[in-house]
Write a structure and sequence with these properties.
Elements (H helix, E strand, L loop, with lengths): L1 H5 L5 H13 L22 H7 L2 H11 L8 H7 L14 H6 L3 H16 L3 H4 L10 H5 L1 H16 L4 H9 L17 H18 L4 E4 L8 E5 L3 E6 L5 E7 L4 E2 L39 H4 L11 E7 L5 H5 L15 E6 L2 E7 L4 E8 L3 E9 L4 E9 L9 E13 L3 E24 L2 E17 L4 E10 L1
Antiparallel strand pairs: 1-2, 2-3, 3-4, 4-5, 6-11, 7-8, 8-9, 9-10, 10-15, 11-14, 12-13, 13-14, 13-15
């Protein structure tokens, strides 16, 4: 691990000193291995000038090859010459920074503070081996959007056992880059998620039989409803507000609900990482760079209290504004969008969901036609209020703006990636729309990315009256 932080960021003599120190100790047949990322040697910020301009790479190879204490070898050469030294069991582990990144944000912040406290006390090096953060699979807890992609892949892995062609797409969907996030964009980069979804949809296209699967797909302990329509795949989540967590076009090979929520990351507060390296010199590693958040981004930095799905229901006070909704400042009487809806009726192409409480009564019926999703609402409230139906859509190429429109009965959502989808309502509504933008870090600094757009239709409710309306979603 130590060499990983020396090369190429520190002067070559530091590496040689470390190797000579190892050679002088009573180790038997010691082998030192460096596996590393090629981008560190010229792509990361500041490394090109250091590695190539100042000839670090040339000096490194020249010095290593001329050092009498160091013998350059291959795995096969070493294994032929030396027998195994004993038995070892490898723990579930990864490199040090990964154990920081995989922790939930508040814990990751504490982890950085803990490591820095140990360094300030001068005891970090001594106890470093016992300092552990999280494991890689924590990312599936940290990012439910990543978890759903992963579990959808596992679902298809079982479904495609008898089709080699479909299985190849599943294997491609296992590329790990889009499932996690650290100092790189990862799950925050829409084009990486699009690639995963493209392969998942193509795999499912091959084996789909028009079935309705009632199954705990994302393994959260509650069943989802996945239907294989002729033109699309749709997954409903009754226990999360009866929302649509996936609407994948089988023709356009695109998941319209590919939207990641705006969430707090620990590096929004702490602009340094818990690197297990104490000595400076040379050029800074990407893990050591401190990056201030630009003020123009800070003023637009908001965090969500919900995941971003389609057909999420809201109860909004009459005085609510689009600005407050955009900034997540509205306190709703109940968080309807994340509560459990009961399945009142379930049959092929038809799902009837209900939520009844003292605050509101909602009946929400999905009709899943060949090329259209129809959702019929029956809503009763004990007082005057607005009922909001929110559609979060993966609009990644077209830049959306904060906007309120009046008396809208239909509208189109357009994007250079997927083209168009059309939304129609039987009632005229107030339409709120705004971009969903997240702040993540990357090699280049900060990425303030549009993850999608929110489109919320507001229906006025009068005290005691039952409001009935329909919403149609279809591809164009």
């Amino acid at each position: 691990e130590y060499l990983r932080y020396l090369t190429p960021f520190r002067p070559v003599e530091r590496t040689i000193k470390y190797l000579k120190d190892l050679a002088s100790k009573d180790y038997e047949n010691i082998l030192v291995v460096v596996h590393d990322d090629g981008e560190k040697y010229g792509v990361w910020p500041g490394t090109y000038e250091w590695v190539h301009g100042k000839k670090w790479l040339d000096e490194f190879f020249d010095t290593i090859l001329s050092c009498e204490e160091v013998i350059v070898t291959t795995y096969s050469e070493y294994m032929e010459k030396y027998p195994p030294s004993g038995i070892v069991y490898l723990p579930t582990t990864s490199y040090f920074e990964m154990s920081e990144w995989s922790l939930p944000a508040t814990q990751a912040k504490m982890f950085v503070e803990f490591v820095n406290t140990l360094k300030e006390s001068g005891i970090f090096s001594k106890y470093r081996v016992f300092v552990k953060g999280g494991i890689w699979k924590n990312f599936f807890y940290k990012y439910p959007e990543s978890n759903y992609m992963h579990k959808r892949m596992l679902f298809l892995s079982r479904l495609t056992r008898r089709s080699l062609k479909a299985k190849m797409y599943v294997l491609r969907a296992q590329c790990n880059d889009a499932y996690w996030h650290g100092v790189f964009g990862g799950v925050y980069l829409p084009h990486l998620r699009e690639a995963i979804w493209r392969n998942l949809i193509m795999a499912h296209n091959i084996v789909a039989k028009g079935m309705m699967h009632v199954k705990d797909i994302d393994m959260d302990g509650e069943a989802e409803i996945l239907y294989e329509a002729p033109n699309y795949f749709i997954t409903l989540k009754p226990h999360y507000g009866g929302s649509v967590v996936e609407l994948s076009s089988r023709e356009k090979i695109y998941n319209y609900v590919d939207v990641i929520a705006r969430r707090y990351e620990h590096y929004h507060d702490i602009l340094e990482a818990a690197v297990p390296q104490e000595e400076g010199g040379g050029v800074e590693s990407i893990h050591e760079l401190k990056k201030e958040i630009p003020p123009e981004i800070k003023k637009e930095l908001f965090y969500d209290t919900r995941l971003r799905y389609m057909f999420q229901d809201h109860i909004l006070p009459k005085e609510s504004t689009i600005e407050d909704f955009y900034a997540s400042r509205i306190k709703e009487p109940i968080e309807l969008y994340k509560l459990k809806y009961e399945i009142a009726k379930l049959r092929h192409r038809y799902v009837d969901l209900r939520f009844y409480s003292k605050i509101i009564k909602v009946s929400k019926t999905f009709e899943l036609l060949r090329d259209t999703v129809i959702v019929t609402y029956k809503v009763t409230s004990p007082k005057d209020t607005f009922f909001g139906v929110e559609l979060n859509v993966g609009v990644h190429a077209k830049k959306e703006k904060l906007n309120q429109l009046e008396n809208v009965s239909s509208f189109e959502i357009t994007d250079d990636v997927f083209g168009k989808i059309q939304i129609e309502s039987t009632d005229d509504v107030i339409l709120w729309k705004y971009p969903i933008k997240t702040l993540s870090q990357s090699e280049s600094g900060w990425d303030f990315i549009q993850q999608g757009a929110s489109y919320t239709m507001l229906y006025p409710l009068r005290e005691g009256e039952e409001k009935i309306f329909r919403i149609y979603v279809r591809e164009i």
